[in-house]
Structure formats: C-alpha cells, structure tokens
C-alpha cells in the first residue's frame, strides 16, 4: 500500500500537504502523511462539502474509479477521490487533502487523537 503513494504522487493536487485550509501537522508532512508509515490518521470528512469518504481498496465493481486505481478513498457525494495517504486527486471537487488531526502515540499500541506534543 505504501508503494502506491509514489505512483499516485503526480496525480494528486497537493502531494506535499502544503495547502493551509486544513494545515497538516509537521509530523505528518511526509509521503505517507502520518507519524508511523503503516497507520494513517485522518478525519473522515470530505474537504468539499463534508460528506464521508469510504474506503476503496480496489476498484472491483466500481465504474466510478479509473482502471489504474491504486486504492484509496472515494467520496460518494460528488466523486472526489483520495489516495491511501488521504491526498485528493487533481481536478476533483474537494479542494484539499483529508485533514490529519493532532495526534500522538502514548505507546506502541495506544494513540491519543485530538492532542499532540505541541499542546
Ligand atoms: S462532499 Fe465530497 S466530493 Fe462533495
């Protein structure tokens, strides 16, 4: 899944999470947009009009996804698509990537969402 992010990078609108409508915390300004590459923490609200994107780990049986779909999230309301790091694809209604909320790991198996070390 992580290797797909290199393939989607040229197709997403803000690959480095530089837009500021939903500022990405510094610790998530990387290719996988997370502290730990294997875990993505994002708010499940589309940056267009607030619908809930759903996971689409493959395109099977979904004609609204392109043939080269690498997996990610689809907002069913107006068709915005996001890659597995929550980065919005170009030319979609959503203006921004999925928001990475403040969060931090309290241990290897415990995460606190809503606060980070900067609080
Ligand atoms: S609310 Fe997600 S595409 Fe419009």
Reading the helices and strands in chain order gives: HEEEEE
- List the total number of helices: 1
Enumerate the spans where pLDDT stays under 50 for 5 or more consecutive residues: none
Number of strands: 5
User: Assembly state here?
Assistant: single chain
How large is the radius of gyration?
A: 14 Å
Biggest sheet, open or closed, and with what strands and sense? Answer: 3 strands, antiparallel
Strand order of the largest sheet: 1-2-3
Distance between the termini: 31 Å
Strand residue percentage:
15-25%
Bound molecules: FE2/S2 (inorganic) cluster
The residue fraction in helices comes out at: under 10%
Question: What is the approximate shape?
Answer: globular
Which structural class do the helices and strands define?
mainly beta
- Tally of separate domains: 1
CATH topology: Rieske Iron-sulfur Protein
Query: CATH class, please?
Result: Mainly Beta
CATH-assigned homologous superfamily:
Rieske [2Fe-2S] iron-sulphur domain
Mean pLDDT: 94
Task: Provide a quick synopsis of the model.
By secondary structure, the protein is mostly beta strands. The chain is 4% helix and 15% strand.
